[in-house]
Amino acid sequence: MDYVSTREGRSAVTASQAIVRGLAPDGGLFVPTEIPAVDMEFIRGLCADGYRERAVKVLGLYLEEFSREELEAIAQASYGDNFDCPAVAPTHVLDADTGVLELWHGPTSAFKDMALQIMPRLLTASLRKNGEERTVSILVATSGDTGKAALEGFKDVPGTRIMVFYPRDGVSQVQKLQMATQEGGNVNVVAVDGNFDDAQTGVKRIFSDKEFAEELDGRGFFLSSANSINWGRLAPQIAYYFSAYCDMVNAGNIALGDEIDFCVPTGNFGDILAGWYAKRMGLPVGRLICASNDNNVLTDFIGTGVYDKNRPFYLTSSPSMDILVSSNLERLLYCLTGDGDMVRGFMEKLSGQGRYEVSPALLESIRSEFVGGWCADADAKAEIGRLWREQGYLMDTHTAVASRVLRDLREKEGTVRPTVVVSTASPFKFGAAVLEALGAVTSETGPALMDELTALTGLPAPKPLASLAGKPVRFDKWVPVPDMKQAVSEFLA
Ligand SMILES: *Cc1c(COP(=O)(O)O)cnc(C)c1O
Fold first, then answer.
1. How far apart are CA 89 and CA 86, in angstroms?
2. Eight-class DSSP state of 461
């Protein structure tokens, strides 16, 4: 299967080349030229499998250069003891019509682990397949969770370096501590004096700097990305949509072949786009509900066809969704139209005027598969409290946005369709906001909040989070946005 850029649709590369490069040379994102189709027998087979087998079967359809044995070994190492439950990504049945797909049982307690535990292994295997001898240097801009998950995934992986930039005031205390205490001899973490979009734009600028690339080449390095723009991040995420569907079948909530909706707390549009690929492959998915927080640029886009990032930027208690430029949307626009020139035009307008508008026909096509919704920060918090009181289920602030958006939609439509809410983080990762949502008054900060949450709910904190308090801080540097390149240069000296 070939992969092409969303901005030209030509010069095909293989999957391993797409993974090695991260971003296409023209600034576009790599997408497969066709979407593999599966039938109901394939899905029936998955229902009898564990998570690793499900992942191998789904991933194998996209990564033809990888043998079955190779993928099995990679999946074994990626989704094993590093996850705190054998199901890897269990679906919690909330009620007859609602499942919660828990994607946070990995080493950093957020859903990014689902992709980032496996992606470094796919990347290093891809490097070998392409005879690459230079050291791959991963640059990451993170709104919190990606950074830590990428650091954990890449730490001490031979032939790799990783450098993470995060917005200085845009991540939670626990997230900051997770990154500041990162172990590993090939890692670096630097805060940026700006918001996530500033950090992401800064990283993109470094990637497109040809002179800098030549300079690094001379030193034996080349840059690549672990952001969700890398196909190696997106592909593993497709598997958990199949897995959740099978869980719902196995739990008796639906019959094989029934349609379900997915409601996804969305930031960069990577998670929900993986769901769209699953749907297009033949998984019986009705609608994909794109849930946003106060930064509701996607809700407006799905409502009007106008993508406009010229708007206030809010820091919310779901920081991983505090995003105004949802990079992976570009993939959807290309896949729906096959028109690279048009997509390039949109992206040029987005970086020039901060705004573009799609045609009525394209909007119609988006709306036939996606529903947009958003909820205010206070309403997401109220949802956490309500679910805990009424159903004894504790969720984090991001998942709560999706849960609330789903509840509002069901109320508005007056019907209830079987739906899986995609749960993206452990509530312990966002202890302050979750405690507040439960009505607790606390003067604690940072990791001590986790003890309070345990005292209040009787639930244990995930082990890697519980052990944070005792770890030494290794990284406490910050830079202004224009100095990011210099920081990279020093790290790759
Ligand atoms: C990254 C993240 C999201 C958003 O996912 P996207 O793929 O960027 O849309 C939502 N919740 C949490 C906890 C995350 O870490």
1. 8
2. P
Instruction: Report the DSSP beta bridge partners of residue 291.
Output: 265, 373
Q: What is the 215 CA–ligand 1 centroid distance (Å)?
A: 34
220: left (phi over 0), alpha (psi -120 to 50) or beta: left
- The one-letter amino acid at 35: I
Q: Which two tokens stand for residue 72?
A: 């099995």
Residue 31: strand pairing partners: 4
Please tell me the distance from the alpha carbon of residue 465 to that of residue 475, in angstroms, as a whole number.
18
Phi, psi dihedral angles at 230 (to 5 degrees)? -80, 130
For a pocket test of ligand 1, which of 146, 228, 271, 396 has the largest count of ligand atoms closer than 8 A to its C-beta?
Answer: 271
Average confidence score pLDDT of the chain: 95
Predicted local distance difference test score (pLDDT) of residue 21: 84
Query: What distances in angstroms separate CA 445 from CA 429, 451, 485, one per listed residue?
Result: 12, 11, 33
54 token code pair: 């499900």
Nearest CA to ligand 1 atom 2: 320
Return the structure tokens found at 427. Answer: 């509530």
Distance in angstroms (rounded) separating the CA atoms of residues 17 and 13: 6
The structure tokens listed for 63 are 């990564």
Check if the beta carbon of residue 227 is closer than 8 Å to that of residue 143: no
| Pick from 61, 54, 74: nearest CA to 1 | 61
Structure tokens at 453: 């949450």
In this structure, the residues whose C-beta lies within 6 A of any atom of ligand 1 are 110-112, 145, 228, 265-271, 320-321, 398, 424-425
Bridge partners of residue 201, in order along the sequence = none
Rounded distance between C-alpha atoms, residue 432 and residue 448, angstroms? 10
State the architecture of 88-108+237-428 in CATH terms: 3-Layer(aba) Sandwich (3.40)
User: What contacts 126, CB < 8 A, 6 or more positions away?
Assistant: 15, 16, 17, 19, 20, 232
CB of 231 closer than 8 Å to CB of 19 = yes
Q: Going by C-beta distance under 8 Å and a sequence separation of 6 or more, which residues neighbour residue 233?
A: 115, 116, 119, 226, 227, 270
Assign 182 to helix, strand or coil: coil
Cβ pair 407, 95 in contact under 8 A: no
**Can you tell me the distance from the alpha carbon of 330 to that of 335, in angstroms, rounded to the nearest whole number?**
9
Residue 25 has pLDDT above 90, yes or no: no
Read off the DSSP letter of residue 256. T
Domains in the chain: boundaries: 88-108+237-428
DSSP secondary structure letters along 122-171? HHHHHHHHTT--SEEEEEEE-SSHHHHHHHHHHTT-TTEEEEEEEETTSS
Residue pLDDT, tens place only, 123-177:
999 999 999 989 999 999 987 778 899 999 999 888 899 999 999 988 878 889 9
Tens digits of per-residue pLDDT, 31-66?
A: 999 999 999 999 999 999 999 999 999 999 999 999
